[in-house]
Amino acid sequence: MAITLEQLAEHLHLSVFGSAWAEITHVAPLDKASSGALSFLTNRHYRRFLATTGASAVILSADDLPFCRTSALISPNPALSYCRAVRFLVTEPPTEPGIHPSAVVSSTAAIHPSSRIGAQAVVEDRVVVEAGCDVGPGCYLARGSRLGRGSRLLARVFIGHDVVVGRDCQIQAGAAIGGEGFGFARDGEAWERIPQLGTVRIGDRVEIGSNTCIDRGALEDTVIEDGVKLDNLIQVGHNVRIGAHTIIAGNTGIAGSTKIGSCCQIGGMVGIVGHLEITDHVIITGRSMVAHSIHAPGVYSGGMPSDQAARWRRNTARFRQLDEIASRLHTLEKSLKKDS
Amino acid sequence: MAITLEQLAEHLHLSVFGSAWAEITHVAPLDKASSGALSFLTNRHYRRFLATTGASAVILSADDLPFCRTSALISPNPALSYCRAVRFLVTEPPTEPGIHPSAVVSSTAAIHPSSRIGAQAVVEDRVVVEAGCDVGPGCYLARGSRLGRGSRLLARVFIGHDVVVGRDCQIQAGAAIGGEGFGFARDGEAWERIPQLGTVRIGDRVEIGSNTCIDRGALEDTVIEDGVKLDNLIQVGHNVRIGAHTIIAGNTGIAGSTKIGSCCQIGGMVGIVGHLEITDHVIITGRSMVAHSIHAPGVYSGGMPSDQAARWRRNTARFRQLDEIASRLHTLEKSLKKDS
Amino acid sequence: MAITLEQLAEHLHLSVFGSAWAEITHVAPLDKASSGALSFLTNRHYRRFLATTGASAVILSADDLPFCRTSALISPNPALSYCRAVRFLVTEPPTEPGIHPSAVVSSTAAIHPSSRIGAQAVVEDRVVVEAGCDVGPGCYLARGSRLGRGSRLLARVFIGHDVVVGRDCQIQAGAAIGGEGFGFARDGEAWERIPQLGTVRIGDRVEIGSNTCIDRGALEDTVIEDGVKLDNLIQVGHNVRIGAHTIIAGNTGIAGSTKIGSCCQIGGMVGIVGHLEITDHVIITGRSMVAHSIHAPGVYSGGMPSDQAARWRRNTARFRQLDEIASRLHTLEKSLKKDS
User: Are A251 and C271 in contact (CB under 8 A)?
Assistant: First the structure.
């Protein structure tokens, strides 16, 4: 598909600098782009490539325009404009609606005719799949679960019984939504499973990464609000609530009953203890351990950067003496104060 | 289903305080319960809800009884009594025994007629599935594996060849039991896989969470003893042994050949180095890195709580100088000692 | 299968010490071996077992020979010789080529007749499976993906559209290769997905563990070079490149666009920030957080060993004062310098 830069600008409501008739056929990174390519600049670090790029046009901010030697589309939000340009330029192969003959679908499930149920999928009793959904190969929708309009399960996704997924969600391969929460009561030395009677409720436009796990609630539901984005291999414990538009990077774990506010940004491999409350607009950098509730918006950190092994070993050995070191310092301070 | 509090008390072997004829129809959390609800108190933090709860009855300890204004069941272990009350009140839909027509089952597999093999499951040669098992949709039991009486695989579980699962186990979606262990021999710059000849042996009443991985042993077996509870996204390396009734929270990783004792409690995102021994009754709090064997029961920690980003940055910068700081302190102490 | 030690020595190009006619029937660990067993010694820690082992022969280095009281094969690399001995002694059951009748295979897919497509697998349009491949039960190869000669997908592996897997690779159960990368543009409070137009390219002899995730690139490809070994539950973000023969242990996460060199060794639960460069021959010990590029080969650490809980608590409390402690020390030093 080829369009002119002007057509693209019109679609994106942006203004063109340079040749409105430049033909755009595809997208490419600044440093690898050739004629016909649309590129974009969102990271100042790559501004130097503006001087040498072969792209026919670049989406960039007004600030970066003076450095640009090719045609450009000026955007207040180049990343977002780029998203939309790609959607306009690159068309995904359409999904054929219908139920694949190898799928096993209960006669009491309600599948909208515009939706697809892929090969080897299993759809149990009383499941509802609304219009325009795409349930990929090998997915399993357990009894009573619901999939809102336009939602897409890539492949091998597990949706537990009575789980509700909103509209326009996208769930990657292997995600497990609605497994039993991890709750046990002691019985002498042994542990007895506490029945998990809640479910999982997922809002609209939620994205869930590959092999991420969200457990069903114990008595109430685990809740993922609208617009939440979860990366791969994340663990969400039972009764957790994640507020709207919060984004969480991979390998992070959130223990049971913790409530996270809206518009938070949580880095990778963060561990959040159970039964906490984290308010809205909190940023937690990668690898932090959050052991206490956070009541004020702001940036919080807990990851310790690595070092050369020999120095690291010496410093960690001292860490084991840190309280003693502090006491010795205090003793010294007192003795000097007395002296003076 | 509705029963009287007295009937419930009799079933649970507990004594009633208040109205023995109160009708119980369901369970609910203290702060959301209304008439007909049974609730429970296991966490002192929620004791304040006893004053206002609408529950018809509450399971609690004798200590909490004075604060309770509704009917109550007194239990030495309210959490366990609650478990059992729920099992009595809430009946799960029964599983239909039989092999789903879409499942692929070897003619040499022995499936007990009281067990279910779900849709799209694959059961290979010489597999044994004992009575009362439930093999959910999309599970795969490789050749020679065994599933003990009453065990349940939720969905898409992988059970490798010759793996043995005991009785009354429950394994959540996507768990991978019996993948090849991660063992390689150097061959110049390259690595050559060391064949993994062992398998995985899992005891009775073991629970394994979603997408958790347990690798098969290199020469001997990886062993998970009776009553072990593993949360989601846990990694168990080859030749690991986990002792009876040990419970491990999500995202934890245990490297190869480590032996963990019985009745341990290991928090989330803990990393345990390989070839260690951890004795019985050890508690390891969340996010610890265990780099040495632990020979004495007790509580061990290693997670560093997060802080405001600016302060965290200053402190981690100082951490890189910690050994030097300790040396400077020592110099000061010496010089002052000399002076005095 | 029984062979003489001499036959084995000839196959492995090693020299025999002791009885060349000893009959070898199986392999076993040193401390559990009985007559007929071949054992091996690669870890000095177990040298003491040489005195008492019942093995008929042991593969070991020349250094360890003086301690050995049984027959031996002398190897400059006992682990590698052991690998090859096992391959010689233990034959895996052969895989029957052909497409299982329950598999769903597109008529436009090219499956070599020597390859197997297992039960319940799904193979989409234009997929290419070269000779000698084994696609296990429940795997899903999306449109346009390719599997090189001799590669093996254990079970339930997801291979995204247009992903290229090289020769002689082995991918464990539940791995998700080619899910959408985690990239979003802000749109007010909400996030909009950035289309991920790249794919994943995997070299030859790569091994990928259970439930490990490798995301497809945003514009360019995510690349895993020849001979890379990835353990279970690893997260590889979009546009990452991992150099040849690098080996990475379980639960590690690598954020987007980071480039890792060749011949690196990365421990378990390591977190690597995005957009970094790590040069060749870097060793990163378990649990490190890598927050900056590494330009020099060497060993780097970042994991803090756990401690008794009470002492740990005191030391972490002091850590929050570390910058202040360092300042107080500096003040003391200055005041003493002035005095003297």
Answer: yes
For the whole model, what pTM was predicted?
Answer: 0.97
Name residues whose C-beta falls within 8 Å of residue C72's C-beta, 6 or more positions apart in sequence.
Answer: C16, C17, C18, C57, C58, C59, C60, C65
Question: With bands split at pLDDT 50, 70 and 90, how would you rate the model's confidence at C136?
Answer: very high
B314: containing domain: 309-339
Q: Are residues C10 and C146 both part of a single domain? A: no
In a domain, B183, yes or no: yes
| Cβ–Cβ below 8 Å for A156 and B172 | no
Write the CATH number for A55: 3.40.1390.10
Residues of chain B found within 8 Å of residue A235, distances taken between Cβ atoms: 231-233, 250-251, 268
Q: Is residue C94 part of a domain?
A: no
Tally of domains in chain B? 3
CB spacing of B185 vs C155 below 8 angstroms: no
Q: Phi-psi region for residue A275, left (φ > 0), alpha (ψ -120 to 50) or beta? A: left
Tokens describing residue B84: 């059992």
C116 and C227 co-located in one domain: yes
User: Are residues C140 and C107 part of one domain?
Assistant: yes
Reading the block at residue A296, the tokens are 């004020």
Tell me the ipTM for this assembly: 0.96
Predicted confidence at residue A1, as pLDDT, reads 67
Q: Do B166 and B262 lie in a common domain?
A: yes
Chain B residues with CB inside 8 Å of A182's CB?
209, 229, 231-232, 249-250
pLDDT at position A44 is 86
Residues B81 and B106 in one domain: no
Q: Establish if B100 touches chain A: CB-CB under 8 angstroms.
A: yes
Sheet of C128-129, strand order:
C110-111, C128-129, C146-147, C164-165, C200-202, C222-224, C241-242, C259-260, C277-278
Q: How far is A94 from chain C (nearest CA, A)?
A: 13
The verdict on B119 touching C (C-beta cutoff 8 Å) is no
Q: Are residues C237 and C332 in the same domain?
A: no
pLDDT digits (tens, 9 = 90+) for B18-31: 999 999 999 999 99
Quick one: B130 and B237 in the same domain? Answer: yes
Q: Is A322 on the interface with C (CB under 8 A)?
A: yes
Q: Which of C224, C232, C330 to mutate: most B Cβ within 10 Å?
A: C232
Report the gap between the CA of C113 and the closest CA in chain B (Å): 22
pLDDT score recorded for residue B288: 97
